[in-house]
Amino acid sequence: MLDYIALGILCFAAVVLFYGIILLHDIPYEIAVHRNHPHQDAIHAAGWVSLFTLHVLWPFLWIWAMLYREDRGWGFSTDKPGGAGVADLAQELAALRQRVEQLEGQRNAGVETPREE
């Protein structure tokens, strides 16, 4: 009787270990899904490759999935679209346009336009 109980516990442990490893390899993919990562499919495929290479790639996949966030992208720039950087550029563009108009006005004032007779 105890042999069957031990066999049952052993089978149960093997199944739990098998599915636990599969769940572990999927963690970077789940992170990528929650962060709306643009490379979700690549991370998922690399996770399966990592499963067959004894999770050698797994730490790199975790880092890859964690690098991207939807609100700040890859995090290389502190300027957000519509932020202060864009406003400064728009102000500089307006000043340059005004300067060009002034220069064109000075040039046109010094040149006489030919009259048709």
Low-confidence stretches: none
Classify the secondary structure makeup into a structural class. mainly alpha
Strand fraction equals under 5%
What percentage of residues falls in helices of 4 or more residues? over 70%
Whole-number radius of gyration?
32 Å
Backbone shape: rod-shaped
Largest sheet: none
Number of strand elements = 0
Number of helical elements: 5
Mean pLDDT: 87
Distance between the termini: 122 Å
Q: What sequence of helices (H) and strands (E) makes up the elements?
A: HHHHH
Which key features would you list for this structure?
mainly alpha
Question: How does this model look, in words?
Answer:
- The chain is mainly α.
- The chain has five helices and no strands.
- Helix 2 (27-34) packs parallel to helix 4 and helix 3 packs antiparallel against helix 4 (58-67).
- It is rod-shaped.
- The mean pLDDT is 87.
In short:
The protein is 70% helix and 0% strand.
